[in-house]
Amino acid sequence: MTNQMTPARQERGRELARDAHDRFLRVSEHSWIVPSATHAGKAYAVDQLRMSCTCLDGEPGNKCKHLWAVQYISNAVTLIDGTRLAPPPVEDSDGAAASVAAQGGAS
Is the pLDDT reported for residue 72 higher than 70? Predict the structure, then answer.
């Protein structure tokens, strides 16, 4: 990963969080299913603790746009355009929402 790639990935992650946050699925406190930004119907498993993603850019040591996107929505934030992103609840095995407090950051 080059230093020039990080700002581009971070920006694409911000855009993904802004545009598709309603399609993110929080499966545990630190695990998410994140939709692909380019392939309809495709999604990736993101693990915040391991800093890993199942996408091609999610190799060890690379922080892909999906990891950036999860970082943006794992804490309630307001983007510069006024979009409010709050972490969705964790889905239990029945698909019912179970509340999990966001870790770190201010709400």
Answer: yes
Give Dmax (Cα) for the chain: 43
The total number of residues shown for the chain amounts to 107
Q: Are the C-beta atoms of 76 and 87 separated by less than 8 Å? A: yes
pLDDT digits (tens, 9 = 90+) for 40-64: 899 999 998 899 999 998 877 789 9
* Single-letter amino acid, residue 11: E
d(CA 35, CA 16): 9
The H-or-E segment that residue 57 falls in is none
5-20 and 65-73 helices cross at what angle (nearest 10)?
50
| Gyration radius (Cα) of the chain, Å | 13
| Cβ partners under 8 Å of residue 67, min gap 6 | 13, 46, 48, 51, 52, 53, 58
SS3 assignment, position 11: helix
What is the dihedral sign for C-alpha 87, 76, 39, 66? negative
